[in-house]
Amino acid sequence: MSGIEFGQIGVIAGKEFRDRLRNRWVLAVAGVFTIFALVIAYFGAAQQGAVGWRSIDVTIASLVSLVIYLVPLIALILGYDAIVAERERGSLDLLLSMPITRFEVLLGKFTGLAGALGVATVAGFGLAGVLLFYQLGSAALFHYGGFVLSAFLLSLCFLSLAVMVSVLAEDRMRASGIAIALWFFYVLVYDLLLLGLLVISEGKLNLIFFPVLLMLNPADIFRILNIFGFEDVQRLYGLATVFPETLANPWLLGSAMVFWIIAPLGIAAWRFK
Amino acid sequence: MTDKLIDIRGVKKRYGAVDAVNGVDLTIGAGELFGLIGHNGAGKTTLFKMMLGLLPASAGEIRIGGQAVRGTAFREVRRSIGYLPESLALYDNLSGLETLHFFARLKGVDRSTCPALLDRVGLASAADQRVRNYSKGMRQRLGFAQALLGSPRLLFLDEPTNGLDPQGILEFYRILAELRQGGVTVVLTSHILAEIQQRVDRLALMRNGRIQALGTVQALRQSQDLPLTLRVSFRPGDDKLLMTTLAPLNIGPIEAIDGIARFACPRQKKMALLAALTAAGTTIRDIDIHEPSLEDVFLGYAEATP
Question: Which of residues 35-74 of B touch A (CB under 8 A)?
């Protein structure tokens, strides 16, 4: 028998998921998401001198900023030691002596952790969504659902990167360092670099390379995916000037995020083999 | 030896410039209890891991039950293999029973067999305790129970009595004897040679990645031609008589204190020695003859090959 046994993936995934439920990780992250989402939705416009529930586009724009900082960090923390911790502890040999392939172990780990992230994301932002539904009506819920889905996709992109790190790193310490460096790079540094590039090129790079460069960062894809649907927000971010509308297709952007999930996981599977 | 279950041919494992395993040829028959001994770093654990398909060999081939251990078809063979690693690491957040359930699911074993397995290794009362609260001996027992999941036909046990108390060690070997009666093949390593010398059918002595000696304990003893050790109890004050009796045999230094003499005797002189002692009459009260231990054999080989 040479094919993938999904039952084996399910066993590993089930254990990972139950571990996160049991140690209250899911509850804690869901709580953090709920609290932050509600606080930002209500107080997000305080700088403009107003508090309270606003339109869904402004609410989502505020939440996007939160998610871009928080979700990648949580996903990286969740997954950075998925494999390296088992290797370091010595439990990996015992696991691999079972009738399971390395790829199944890897996929099981990823699936279980993705499940934990998914439940935390949906539960956390879902609770906030229920309140928004009462305050802003059912039409808002459609956009909000899209936002939650894209937030989940973003978390999977960074989880995939984290699992890749967990395979490549020699020990947990290095894995955690690389994971933090990735967060800094993609969330804090990358956009500054692009901005610097724009300034240096005096805006000439705009239409040719800039959209491609934005696609090289899953956090930016998430941002574009969520703000291109709202004109007000587009103006707020000024993104329409550097990103052509033809590329702002949700399916295209969604596919780019799926690529960001598959590619690091593929590298991890290749190296782990 | 019955049908060969494990077939190792020309296996090497190289880490950079170091040959951890260097050209091992070995066959182990079905139903055998086979011991793998050697100093730390001799290559035992590396060979174990290669036999389980956990490490790829740099050269050579290993087959278990006719299947190459790195082949895709080996997954099915793994269902009938139990493994207890030397550095056993279990999941601290799970209970003993949950640990067995987890591995049972992976092996495709009915989970209802788990409580009986825990009972067999003496952990029934701790089944619901978290593994983090287990002592080292309890973890080792749980690891052994895990290895027994699914009634394996082949067991790889790397230092299986690590951390077990004397009662636990006896219990472990009792279970091993039961398994052998059921035809289970066992490959084990141990640093405690006295433990395994009475129990293994054959053993391989590894040194610097190679098999230095292979055979039954008796065969290895004979190949080393190590002397027997004698302890003779005699009437106090008869030291001179004893020395006079043994002198013609020229058997080397004799240590005699308070009516007890200890000395080594070449195997070939055993009968002559017994005849001389019998002739000495009532001055001799008791004679104990000890075969060289496996440790003596081990040390003998170590000295023979620097």
Answer: 49, 52, 54, 72-73
More confident residue, B303 or A29: A29
Distance CA A64, CA A61 (A): 5
User: What is the interface pTM, i.e. ipTM, of the complex?
Assistant: 0.86
Query: In this predicted model, what pLDDT tens digit does every residue of A67-95 receive, in sequence order?
Result: 999 999 999 999 999 999 999 998 999 99
Residue A42 near residue A53, CB atoms below 8 Å: yes
Predicted confidence (pLDDT) at residue A1 exceeds the cutoff of 50: no
Instruction: Tell me the pLDDT band of A206, cut-offs 50, 70 and 90.
Output: low
Residue B105 and residue A11: Cβ atoms within 8 Å?
A: yes
Instruction: Report the residue of chain A nearest B56, measured CA to CA.
Output: A273
Please give the domain boundaries of chain B with CATH numbers for all domains.
4-80+153-215 (3.40.50.300), 225-302 (3.30.70.260)
pLDDT tens digits for range A238-254? 666 666 666 778 888 89
Tell me the two tokens of residue B158. 């790397």
Chain A positions touching B73 (Cβ under 8 A) are 1-2
* For range B233-243, the mean pLDDT: 84
With a CB cutoff of 8 Å and minimum separation 6, the contacts of A4 are: A101, A103, A104, A107
Within 13 Å and on the Cβ side, how many CA atoms surround B158?
Answer: 19
CB contact under 8 A, B78 and A97: yes
Strands B260-265 and B255-257: antiparallel
Query: Which of A146, A136, A155, A137 is CA-nearest to residue A68?
Result: A155
* pTM (two decimals): 0.86
pLDDT for B1: 47
- The answer, for B139 touching chain A at a CB cutoff of 8 Å, is no
Report the candidate in B181, B257, B228, B211 with the shortest Cα–Cα distance to residue B28: B211
Residue A53 identity (one-letter amino acid): W
